[in-house]
């Protein structure tokens, strides 16, 4: 009987294999300010290879109320909107999902008289709405990739009920 128990234990342990732990996908959406970065030569656009995110997000997921993907406009809480409008012009930011950068963008207040054609920008027009546009001022055909509705970001926002 003792031999049967040992044989069963060996067979069971040999047939059971441990599976590697699966990565936990949280879908945490946040906006980070950049601690440091360089612009691409001659452009108002973040060079991703030089960008360093701040340790803590400027706007956490709770500050994002919803996103209108057709109009590319975020609705933020009042506190989150105030954090954006308090930034100096041309502040570089990043939209992230689980701290992975989806795209970089630049805060360009409406009173700014400079151009930023080569970047995704926000202008914070009224209240807690944050439009994200291609170029500043908006151009009909900007020569930049449109990452505003990136699938990873849309999936994360959908999972959180913010679309």
Automatic annotation (TrEMBL):
Protein name: Lipoprotein
């Amino acid at each position: 009987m003792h031999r049967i128990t040992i044989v069963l234990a060996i067979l069971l342990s040999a047939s059971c294999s441990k599976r590697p732990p699966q990565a936990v996908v949280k879908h945490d959406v946040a906006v980070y300010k950049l601690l440091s970065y360089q612009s691409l030569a001659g452009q108002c656009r973040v060079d991703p290879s030089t960008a360093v995110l701040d340790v803590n997000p400027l706007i956490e997921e709770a500050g994002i109320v919803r996103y209108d993907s057709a109009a590319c406009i975020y609705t933020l809480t009042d506190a989150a909107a105030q954090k954006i409008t308090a930034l100096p012009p041309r502040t570089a930011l990043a939209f992230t999902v689980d701290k992975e950068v989806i795209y970089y963008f630049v805060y360009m207040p409406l009173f700014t008289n400079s151009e930023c054609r080569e970047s995704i920008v926000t202008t914070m027009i009224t209240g807690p709405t944050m439009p994200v546009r291609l170029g500043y001022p908006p151009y009909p055909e900007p020569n930049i990739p449109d990452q505003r509705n990136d699938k990873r970001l849309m999936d994360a926002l959908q999972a959180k009920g913010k679309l």
